[in-house]
Amino acid sequence: MDNEIKTPVKNFIRNIIDDDLNTGKHTNIVTRFPPEPNGYLHIGHAKSICLNFGLARSYSGKCHLRFDDTNPVKEDTEYVESIMEDVRWLGWDWGDNLFYASDYFEQLYEYAEILIRDGKAFVCDLNMEELRQYRGTLTVPGKNSPYRDRSVEENLDLFRRMRAGEFPDGSKSLRAKIDMASPNLNMRDPVIYRIKKTDHHRTGDSWQIYPMYDYTHCISDALEGITHSICTLEFEDHRPLYDWFLDQLPVPCHPRQIEFARLNLSYTVMSKRLLLELVKNNYVNGWDDPRMPTIAGMRRRGFTPEAIREFADRIGVAKANSMVDFELLNFCVREDLNKKALRRMAVMDPIKLTIRNYPEGKIEELDAENNPEDPSAGNRRITFSRNLFIEREDFMEQPVKGWFRLAPGTEVRLKHAYYVTCEELTKDAEGNVTELICSYDPASRGGWSQDGRKVKGTIHWVCAETAVNLETRLYDQLFTIPDLGDIEEGKSYLDYLNPDSLVVNTKALGESSLANTEPGTHFQFLRLGYFLADKEYSPEKPVFNRVTTLRDSWAKQKNKQ
Ligand code: ATP
Ligand code: MG
């Protein structure tokens, strides 16, 4: 990661930490990123990762990576591995601080026995449906379970037998004994253990009972000496329970939970459940489909860690939920790639251009800069000949007012090459233009005239003799509406999938060097956008993903509607 540490922007979380350091409450800051390994990470997680690891970095503290793996039914080592890969790719390092909530299962169990002995937990025989009924609602208080007053001895005996696997799934649970009349539903005797006879991806068949998230999370934080436990706003109502468990138990410390607003991004969904559904039902091509808001998808699309970290910095942290425009992400990646990506020429929809006064059979080499933003990137040689291709949309037979590109009788600059004037057209039987016959000005080599004559248009091109065929994959938003939280009644988010989110173009042509690069290399195709050589790229089949266009074409398009 780059070494310069930007002066951090103040926010309410930093203010809390500063106070805690000033008052001496803490001397070392310890945060954590606690994903559940039940799916791939998405850009919302990236916000949380950059926040937690970023705080640790700027306060010279530590950030733990902890897998919150308490639900064996949905979790898998594939997810554990992808999460570690994604956090590393984003540029963060947890060092020795890799933890699993499942490593605390024994300790969590012992703490549960303490709660039972202290009369603060009981074994309940209500089934799921009954639990729900007894729980009450926001306006109706809950009712005590008929099993609430079991003796400590009976509770201990039943809980141990739950652990030993004597009872079927769902037949019993261990519940905290708090207050069924609490206005906060989370405090109404929440379940802390359930029976699940399912193997766990790390503990195998050792356990027949598994602790609930709310119980596990706060204790894990305390066992690891976390100072500030930062989570998203929906956990605000769970904070009293977080504090309750820690107050009842002989834990080594009492971390402070702080909530911030989760990231919502326009034109996409960010729930792991929905993302899993998109993958499982093949609406997209896997977790790393470049249209997915997953880190893996964004990486494959060609977003860079620097762009994502910059994005996370710019959105900052707040207490109120809001929607961030996807364009901000595009802006950040353009800023980054503008500095780094080598420039190349490619033509998406080629039309033939023949220079009638250029010698047949001659091929010359011209200099072209690799990146005008970075002189150290040097130059490359590109070939020029009588036979070229240009972009079909850079020609207009009957030009509209203000058209500066090629048209019959007009002169334009071919980037890095010469001035050309269109003199004639060839058409097929249906009247489509098939070839533009031009003349060139030999004195304009490099793209600058000798007599000071100016042209208004500069267009890109490729040399027919050396061009290579490319497959370009042009991506657009996965959904057609910005706010998927706001869909018509009776409709599903799937009804808003964008049928044009992927357009595969197999007729593109590019400079010959594009058949000689490595998967994962970024380019700017002049005037077209930023592209990445896909992981499926090979010299025989050069496949490029468009990361983003050069400008905000999406917004432009919407403004026109
Ligand atoms: P989902 O609700 O999509 O299943 P989750 O929040 O349950 O996701 P976790 O694996 O529990 O997923 O998340 C790990 C951490 O990332 C949590 O601390 C969570 O608060 C944070 N996080 C998840 N989604 C977002 C988001 N959209 N913006 C910011 N932080 C997020
Ligand atoms: Mg969660």
Description:
With 561 residues, the protein is of the alpha/beta class. It folds into four domains: 12-102 and 215-331, Rossmann fold; 106-213, Glutamyl-tRNA Synthetase, Domain 3 (Glutamyl-tRNA Synthetase, domain 3); 346-467, Ribosomal Protein L25, Chain P (Beta Barrel), CATH 2.40.240; 471-561, Beta Barrel (Ribosomal Protein L25, Chain P), CATH 2.40.240. The chain has 13 helices and 27 strands. It has helices at 12-22, 43-58, 77-89, 105-117, 128-135, 152-163, 213-223, 239-248, 272-280, 295-301, 305-315, 326-340, 553-560; strands at 30-33, 62-67, 98-100, 121-124, 173-176, 191-195, 209-211, 228-232, 256-260, 263-265, 322-324, 342-344, 346-347, 350-355, 363-369, 379-385, 387-391, 411-414, 419-427, 433-440, 458-459, 461-463, 468-475, 502-510, 522-525, 529-533, 543-548. The strands form seven sheets. It has a seven-stranded mixed β-sheet with strand order 12-25-26-27-23-24-13, with helices on one face. Strand 2, helix 3 and strand 3 (98-100) form a beta-alpha-beta unit. Helix 2 packs across helix 11 (305-315), helix 7 (213-223) packs across helix 8 (239-248) and helix 11 packs across helix 12. The longest helix has 16 residues, at 43-58. 37% of the residues are buried. It binds adenosine-5'-triphosphate and magnesium ion. Adenosine-5'-triphosphate binds at residues 34-36, 44-45, 47-48, 231-232, 262-263, 270-272.
Give a concise summary.
This protein has 561 residues and is an alpha/beta fold.
Per-chain topology:
Elements: H1 12-22, E1 30-33, H2 43-58, E2 62-67, H3 77-89, E3 98-100, H4 105-117, E4 121-124, H5 128-135, H6 152-163, E5 173-176, E6 191-195, E7 209-211, H7 213-223, E8 228-232, H8 239-248, E9 256-260, E10 263-265, H9 272-280, H10 295-301, H11 305-315, E11 322-324, H12 326-340, E12 342-344, E13 346-347, E14 350-355, E15 363-369, E16 379-385, E17 387-391, E18 411-414, E19 419-427, E20 433-440, E21 458-459, E22 461-463, E23 468-475, E24 502-510, E25 522-525, E26 529-533, E27 543-548, H13 553-560
Parallel strand pairs: 1-2, 2-3, 8-9, 10-11, 12-25, 14-20, 18-21, 23-27
Antiparallel strand pairs: 4-5, 5-6, 6-7, 13-24, 14-17, 15-16, 17-22, 18-19, 19-20, 23-24, 25-26, 26-27
